[in-house]
Amino acid sequence: MATDVHRTVTGPAVHVEGLTRSFDGRAVIDDLRLDIAPGEFVALLGRSGCGKSTLLRILAGLDRDIQGTALVPRRRAVAFQAPRLMPWKKVWRNVLLGLPGRAERVVAERALDEVGLGHRVDAWPKTLSGGEAQRASLARALVREPDLLLLDEPFGALDALTRIKAQRLVGEVWQRRGCAVLLVTHDVEEAVLLADRVLVMDGGRIAHEQHIDLDRPREITDPRFAALRARLLERLGVDTAAAAA
Amino acid sequence: MSISHAPPDSPGPDISGTSNSEAPAPDAAGPASPALQPVVPASARRTRVPRWLRRTTGPLLLLALWQVLSATGVLAADVLASPGRIAQVGWDLVADGSLPSAMATSLRRVAFGLLFGTVIGTGLALLSGLFRTGEDLVDAPVQMLRTVPFVGLIPLFIIWFGIGETPKIAIITLGVTFPLYLNVYAGIRGVDAQLIEAGESLGLSRWGLVRHVVLPGALPGALTGLRYSLGIAWLALVFAEQVNADAGIGFLMVQARDFLRTDVIVVCLILYAFLGLLADFIVRSLERLLLQWRPTFTGR
């Protein structure tokens, strides 16, 4: 019963095998198997309570009461649904928090520039808007130059317009950085828009896998997009208008 | 009108027809226009008198009333001296050096008591806040001791430490320790678990978590504790100095009581109030400096 979380991987960016996580005897993740290739963008869909966030927390090393194998890169970073910035540190200090060695302010400025927040380097977190705080949180993840970026519903709390911008930003950042991304979400459209591969989790396992081979940038109005979206929604137990007709 | 037969791309005749034929009569159909009143800008409504003047008026009026009552003999001098007399006595006490030296003695006692109390209270709170073992060992005894009124320990302290400076500083230390302990402990335990987790995900070490997440998060609680502690420090000082003291503000008061000098007593009381205000000002400044990140309501 190996529980290796901290080993550098040479092949895939994530290798999970026979992973089980139980809460009070109930297996939320049950003998799960998952591989993510370096540079691959994977979206993880599922109903609430299906264990997708638990899986992300395990890959982030925040939950270690596990059985089975989970191999993840040493350099990995998380952006949570709430930005979770330390309110007592200015934005640039938040970005540098936890970096090994004596990190320079320039490093933070560069990361904040990348997410379009270069003008708020010296701001207190309380003065940021929801979208800005989420971008600061993304900059804090990016400054670690992760091989694996874990995103836990990072757009869930944003308003519709800000969400579209943030999704676009994540897509750009991913294409520039080339790191593997695991995006946990409940938004099917978002998953199809961003991911190379969409997984649907159910009953503690990956119940369905869907490769998205649409060209980027993707258009929601594309009929193939709508078809993929409908198929995934069906998988999630939601009847779409197209399926009902 | 034949709206239903009009072609969709030429709505012109219909609209103009409507507006021509059914122009609303000014008195019949439309709702009566309400009477309007201007919204006065807040700045125009403010009075011309500046705020500090308004705020000082009340105390000054009270002072004037007191002076009048004393001058007319309604308030006898051996009950409460007049403000003018108090000012005179205060000046004399400063001039002959007895008030500054008493104040220095008292301030030194409070400073030492605060120092020891802060170190002990914060230290114990860190122990029980950061470590579960520490909590098990420290919290129960502290909660028990906390319920003992510290003033009641004065006789015991005199037996243990004699009548010198030690029992006085010990009483202040004791009074200061508990509010600090409680608030720092609550502050540490009140730090958002989500932020701790975020810190962990950023790769902070255990000490890094304490330094960058737990301690800053506990700071608001710690400063509240400091505020309580300062208040209690003065209280403890008054008690400690009125028993077996040969110097300090409390000693001046006891002496004045023996000679029925209400003027000297009031001077000492004013001094206590002034020192309390000063302490409060210091904590407020600290809060403004250290807690400027806090997204809380700051009043209008």
Q: How would you describe this structure to a colleague?
A:
The complex is a heterodimer of chains A (245) and B (300). Chain A is of the alpha/beta class and 245 residues long. Chain A has 8 helices and 9 strands. Chain A has helices spanning 52-59, 91-96, 105-114, 130-142, 160-177, 188-194, 223-235, 241-244; strands spanning 14-23, 26-36, 41-46, 67-71, 76-79, 148-152, 180-184, 197-202, 205-211. Chain A has a 6-stranded mixed β-sheet, sandwiched between helices. In chain A, a hairpin with a 2-residue loop joins strand 8 (197-202) and strand 9 (205-211). In chain A, helix 6 (188-194) packs across helix 7. The mean pLDDT of chain A is 88. Chain B is an all-alpha fold and 300 residues long. Chain B has helices at residues 12-21, 42-45, 51-71, 83-95, 98-130, 132-146, 154-161, 165-189, 193-201, 206-241, 249-258, 262-290. Mean pLDDT of chain B is 85; it is low at 1-8 and 10-21. Chain B contains 12 helices and no strands. The two termini of chain B are 60 Å apart. Chain B is flat and about 75 Å long. Chains A and B meet through loops of A and helix 9 and helix 10 of B.
